[in-house]
Design a protein that fits this description.
198 residues, single chain, 26% helix
């Protein structure tokens, strides 16, 4: 049935990462006032701008109650009700912080992932972060694209133009030099891996 104890609940494809799964982030819920006792509503996810799922939730107090439909590996749709304990720890400088307690292993975490029937911590699903699955060249590509999107007003398909509005010229010049170094390393890495030339 794909539930805990069935022997198959934690088998996730080796290429599946946290980025591939729907996740519930307690920090997002706290920041947006969704963890007020008695509050209920829905959470939804999009990928490439298209809806990919939604769930209903209730927060009576110390538990987050989820209600959703799930289909694993193309099987039949199942209705799922799940209770997730929420714990609180004191911060060093006052206030407190809330955590999810994984329903399977009781691990305290900020995000639970749906890589099967239930929302569990990434350790229970053996989910790596995307960055852990990347090689050196892929990491360089990501760094270059992230920096390009930060400093250029327009950045598409690996090419950028026009300084970002509001960015000081000295800041742009410094970051642009870093961008050029990354681009050079990406080009060299591509040549080394694929024998391509530019």
């Amino acid at each position: 049935m794909g539930g805990i104890g069935s022997g198959t609940w934690c088998r996730v494809g080796t290429k599946t990462t946290t980025d591939d799964c729907k996740g519930i982030d307690i920090r997002y819920m706290k920041r947006n006032g969704l963890l007020t006792p008695g509050h209920s509503g829905s959470l939804s996810w999009k990928r490439d701008g298209k809806p990919v799922g939604d769930i209903r939730y209730q927060f009576p107090g110390s538990l987050l109650l989820l209600n959703y439909r799930c289909r694993v590996d193309g099987g039949e749709w199942e209705s799922v009700e799940q209770s997730i304990p929420i714990t609180t720890t004191a911060c060093n400088y006052g206030n407190s912080r809330q955590w999810f307690e994984c329903p399977h292993c009781s691990y305290r975490c900020a995000i639970l992932y749906n890589a099967g029937t239930l929302f569990l911590c990434r350790k229970c699903y053996s989910l790596p972060y995307r960055s852990q699955m990347q090689g050196d060249l892929e990491r360089l590509f990501d760094q270059k694209h992230s920096l390009g999107a930060r400093i250029f007003e327009h950045y598409e398909h690996g090419e950028g133009w026009l300084k970002k509005k509001g960015m000081h010229q000295t800041t742009f010049d410094r970051l642009y030099s870093k961008y050029e170094r990354l681009e050079s390393r990406v080009n060299q890495g591509t040549i080394d891996r694929f024998g391509l030339s530019f």
